[in-house]
Design goal:
- By secondary structure, this protein is α/β, with parallel strands linked by helices.
- The protein has 11 helices and 15 strands.
- α1 packs across α10 and α9 crosses α11.
- The chain is globular.
Amino acid sequence: MSIGIAIIGSGLFVRNAHLPAVQATPKFTLKAVYSRSLKSAKALNVDVALYSDDAGSGKTYHDLLLREDIHGIIIALPILSQPEYIEAALAAGKHVLSEKPIAGDLKRAESLIKYYKSDKVKNNATWAVAENDRFLESYQYASQEILKLGRILGFRVVVSNFVKVDNEYYNTPWRTKPEYQGGFLLDGGVHSVAGIRLLLGEAAKPTAVTAYTTLLQPHLPPADTITSIWQTAAGVPGTFAMSFGTTWSGSEFSVACENGSVAVTGKKVEVRRGLQKDGNSTVKEFEGDNVKAEVKAWAESIANGKQHPYQSPEQALGDLEILEKMLKSGEGNGKTESLQYQV
């Protein structure tokens, strides 16, 4: 039986990723779209009921939630707007998939999880948090290869980019003048944190961070660059360096183990056995749409009543915690910040 779905939001990521993913998921039927303006809802060009704050009587978000043929809600709104929409959907008994990050800060994330676990949630509605990088086949393959190579000895993450003023994602008002901590470091950086957390696994989960932050490009406030050292439960440190304002470009997620190392560069994974200099390595490249994969996983979790572990609010809380603590450490000139929500 098909599951009726509504999409909340009509921005670039909905148009480019969520809408095609829903349309490609056999278990889902798109029933409605809500956006804050009817004009933006119409811009998606879909033949379903449209809801907005200016669409007239009976067409608000809360009216949409009253529909009995809608069982799931995908929420992709500005970071600070999402929590109230999540709570309203859960109170109406709708399953929710909300975009990352889980919230703008830890305090709001903690209150959201508390709400989710309360009796205010109806009909056993479930809440999943979207983090599409956990569904990259390259990361999933790399994480399994790391397990085969023995104890983790260290890791390094380097993510370099330059967000120009004509970037389409930059030119959304809530990103141009962010009212949330970290700016692009939070909005984009949470993906990189999720990726390395997946590679490190349970044995080497982070326990503390020390970081320095700076603003290299004046159009990317409050900070666009972060360099950090992480301590792990395995007792080995690693480095995490990310910038959205540098002339470098590209990314690498590399984990060294007792019997070799693994490096993820985009969709390519290199598995090295023994010392890197020996050149005994294999390379695999991956394709596939990770948003379609995460939406499919969410559909299956609704159908079978079992949440996918990659989509739990607790996983998303772990991502946000590291970002927030790195930013806080940067504000404190490298003061060590301990972690408590790593799973």
